[in-house]
Specification:
The complex is a heterodimer of chains A (344) and B (432). With 344 residues, chain A is mainly beta. In chain A, 10% of the residues lie in helices and 42% in strands. Chain A is built from three helices and 21 strands. In chain A, strand 7 (151-159) and strand 8 form a beta hairpin. Chain B is mainly beta and 432 residues long. Chain B has one domain (58-159, 194-430). Chain B contains three helices and 27 strands. Chain B has helices spanning 7-43, 116-120, 373-376, and strands spanning 58-66, 77-85, 92-100, 103-105, 108-113, 127-128, 132-140, 145-149, 166-167, 188-189, 207-216, 233-245, 248-257, 259-261, 272-275, 287-293, 309-317, 320-321, 326-327, 329-337, 343-351, 354-357, 380-388, 398-406, 412-417, 419-421, 427-430. In chain B, the strands form seven sheets. In chain B, strands 7-3-11-1-14 form a five-stranded antiparallel sheet, with no helix packed on it. Chain B has a five-stranded antiparallel sheet with strand order 21-20-23-16-26, with no helix packed on it. Classes of the chains: A mainly beta (344), B mainly beta (432). At the A-B interface, helix 1, strand 2, strand 5, strand 7 and strand 8 of A face helix 1, strand 2, strand 8, strand 12 and strand 13 of B.
């Protein structure tokens, strides 16, 4: 009978473990269309005219503690400064704030006010001129990493001068095991790995925008450019965020012609594709000096060395008067890179 | 052997068995609870397979808009569609379907509409929905990006790699056998080409609809691709509208990634593409999650009542019967949470394609909508969307995209993909 019981237990245990394991393996792969445990917002800006709205949502029915870090652009030494704060999200709670203002804890915010709703915590504003990223991690009530895979996020970058908006989804990495610890290993075992390859459809810098031309606003002076903002997956928030590596790329135009090159990246990098010495030929239209792309559409395959990274692209379409409309987009991803995030 | 036991020993044995059985039952119950808990815990994150980040074999653009005069959407609008192959060697063929969901007003068939609200503004009766598909082939060479405007399409002579034995664009009307025969060093295409491709313009203007492309093997035995080089297509769309702000006119681009459904490697039988766990293609998501700012919320920085937030939502069914021209249909159940953790719900039928600002989903008076900031009471909201019902044999899965709107009459927009969660479901695409 004991043997029977043992076999029962073994069988049920096996089924249970197999079920959980299967579910874990069948679950999400890192990306921008599923909730996860680590959220990476590669592009957060606050300038005189541009501001950013952050939205974070708890998609689960349990309370969710979240530890967030603003990462500023690297200084001369290559270090990205980090400012942290904590959020508490009740079940299914969405929250939002403008980075220029942050969010105060004020239970008396009137109904309909921007601060109305359960205050998730004190969120500091970022200074004028801020460029950088936001990283948020699910933790437990003691601040230890705890993966529920219920966080999702969006960013809206808006221009207060002309009302232009651009929006992208945060990159989410799901926890894969039932226990997490510090540092967070993005190795497909504790958390999902980071992408090794990023793929971008883009219009080469300097190309004419057929729609603007058709509107009659340009007289062949319209201009399309693309900015790539990248956040490394190797972030040591305890000892100071300093990571670097190389992005190698191959660009294919519509003639299937390949153009290759590379550029360096740091913990956070922003690059105007086609407007730097390393990307001039490969990302620039033949309409501009030094440009090599002879078609108005192209595909870039970026391979990130080291710990990998996530990125967002923002294309700017301007007319002859310099009026700019922008659109942000998430990149497609492939491959796996092992990264590490060390919390303080 | 039991016959040799005394009554007391038998009672003891029965008692021991009883205790053992109780233990087994208790242990089984514990494990069952564990199994159920693991299912509950992981169910939410397992199953969904569609992707907006990776190449796939079925690529869906839920929202394509062409309105060059601005008659339907208010501002001149066109959509740039980009489709790329990531196949490192060899051509890939995409068989694509434009799904035309443009409605027309009952009292004036020349007027296009998305909902009866569009017709009522012009005293033209009700909006009569319609559904038709136009299919075409696109042949992509290795690693080739291809893009076109939905208003124009691409016809013979406009593809970048015409041929074979044609000069490359813009001299693709010239036949050649060597590069030297082509002007301006554009080269002679003697290798892979886009031969066999023809992309028609959107079937009408104004047009609102969707685009679905399915990867085929190409060549004479062209079938839905389940070979080792399946899942090589990805795409995105940029909806460009003409924005007028005072004396200034500008282009407003809104870009989103197309949704991909990965092929499993199982051969398709009888032109029926089954989307589901363990089937031909990945399943559609169980739940779509939309994070948004509630409609009508006034921008807190400018505090200008004319500058308000809004969100447009577009949903399309995963299933379609292109053989009998039966559009997919589902009832979308909306579960809305505000920042007070308060919950609202509503539902709408998604018949072929659903496109609406959020605050017109549940009412014709946006000020009374559960998606209105004045009703919800907070700025940010989360809406969970689940498809139920559906046409028999087909499924009730839904795919979608959202477009955030900021401003009043001349509103700047930004498109973004929805998140997904939940178990996979079974849907069906039937090819003609």
């Amino acid at each position: 009978m004991r043997a029977l019981r043992r076999s029962w237990l073994l069988g049920m245990g096996f089924v249970c473990i197999l079920g959980a394991a299967t579910a874990t393996h069948a679950q999400t792969r890192s990306g921008t269309d599923r909730p996860g445990s680590i959220l990476m917002f590669p592009k957060v800006v606050r300038t005189a005219s541009r501001d950013t709205i952050i939205q974070i949502t708890n998609t689960g029915n349990n309370i969710n503690w979240v530890h967030c870090f603003y990462l500023s652009a690297p200084d001369g030494g290559g270090y990205c400064g980090a400012t942290d704060f904590e959020l508490v999200l009740t079940r299914q709670q969405p929250t939002q704030w403008r980075v220029s203002q942050g969010r105060r804890v004020n239970p008396t915010d009137p109904f309909g006010d921007p601060g109305a709703g359960f205050d998730p915590g004190l969120i500091p504003p970022v200074p004028l001129g801020f460029q950088g990223a936001l990283l948020c991690v699910e933790v437990d009530s003691n601040g230890n990493p705890f993966g529920q895979n219920r966080l999702k996020g969006e960013v809206t970058v808006l221009d207060d001068d002309n009302g232009d908006v651009a929006k992208y989804n945060a990159f989410a990495l799901a926890a894969r095991g039932s226990t997490q610890d510090n540092p967070l290993n993005l190795d497909n075992s504790e958390y999902e790995s980071c992408p090794r390859q990023l793929t971008l459809n883009f219009t080469p810098r300097g190309s004419l925008d057929p729609v603007i031309e058709a509107l009659g606003n340009a007289a062949l002076n319209s201009f399309v450019s693309t900015n790539l903002t990248m956040l490394s997956c190797n972030l040591d928030l305890q000892a100071g965020v300093r990571s670097n590596g190389t992005v190698s790329f191959v660009v294919y135009d519509e003639f299937e012609s390949p153009f290759s090159g590379s550029f360096p990246y740091q913990c956070w990098s922003s690059i105007d594709l086609g407007n730097t010495p390393q990307t001039t030929g490969q990302f620039r239209s033949t309409l501009l000096p030094g440009g090599a792309i002879n078609t108005i559409f192209a595909q870039a395959r970026l391979t990130v060395s080291g710990a990998g990274g996530v990125a967002v692209a923002e294309s700017a379409h301007s007319d002859q008067a310099g009026v700019v409309g922008t659109a942000a987009s998430n990149l497609h991803t492939a491959g796996a890179a092992v990264g590490t995030v060390r919390l303080p | 052997m039991a016959e040799g036991l005394s009554e007391q020993e038998r009672a003891g044995t029965r008692s021991e068995r009883s205790v053992t059985m109780r233990s087994v039952v208790k242990a089984a119950a514990r494990w069952a609870v564990c199994a159920a808990a693991s299912v509950v815990i992981f169910a939410g994150i397992a199953g969904a397979r569609s992707t907006t980040n990776r190449p796939a074999s079925i690529v869906v653009w839920p929202k394509i808009v062409v309105d060059t005069s601005g008659a339907l959407v208010g501002t001149p609008t066109d959509t740039k569609i980009m489709l790329s192959s990531t196949n490192a060697s060899g051509i890939k063929q995409a068989h694509c379907f434009y799904i035309n969901a443009t409605g027309h007003c009952s009292l004036n068939n020349a007027l296009a509409c998305r909902s009866s609200f569009d017709c009522s503004l012009r005293d033209a009766g009700e909006c009569v929905p319609s559904w038709s598909e136009t299919d075409f082939d696109v042949v992509l060479t290795q690693e080739q990006p291809l893009a076109w405007y939905a208003s124009n399409g691409l016809s013979r002579g406009q593809f970048p790699l015409e041929g074979p034995f044609r000069c490359n664009t813009p001299f693709n009307n010239l036949q050649c056998f060597t590069d030297a025969q082509c002007p301006n060093n554009v080269g002679c295409n003697t290798g892979q080409s886009n031969l066999g491709s023809a992309i028609p313009p959107a079937p009408e203007d104004p047009f609102i609809g969707a685009l679905v492309c399915i990867q085929f093997t190409g060549g004479s035995q062209s079938v839905p691709d389940q070979t080792a080089t399946r899942n090589r297509l990805y795409g995105d769309a940029t909806i460009v509208q003409r924005l007028v702000q005072g004396a200034v006119t500008q282009a407003d681009p809104a870009r989103y990634n197309a949704i991909g459904l990965e092929a499993s490697g199982q051969a398709v039988q009888g032109g029926q593409l089954v989307l589901g766990d363990g089937e031909n293609y990945a399943s559609c998501p169980g739940v779509l999650i939309l994070s948004h700012l509630f409609d009508g919320a006034v921008d807190p920085i400018s505090n200008n009542p004319a500058v308000q937030y809004g969100t447009e939502l577009t949903l399309v069914p995963c299933s379609n019967d292109f053989l009998t021209q039966t559009p997919g249909r589902a009832v979308a159940q909306f579960l809305v949470f505000n920042e007070f953790e308060q919950r609202f719900s509503t539902s709408r039928t998604v018949d072929c394609l659903f496109d609406s600002v959020l605050s017109r989903i549940d009412t014709r008076n946006p000020n009374r909508s559960i998606f209105n900031a004045g009703v919800a009471g907070s700025l940010a909201g989360q809406t969970r969307i689940r498809g139920v019902g559906g046409v028999p044999r087909l499924g009730s899965g839904l795919l979608g995209v959202a477009r955030a709107v900021l401003g009043g009459v001349a509103a700047s927009t930004a498109a973004y993909d929805l998140h997904q969660q939940g178990n996979g479901r079974r849907d069906l695409i039937i090819l003609p």
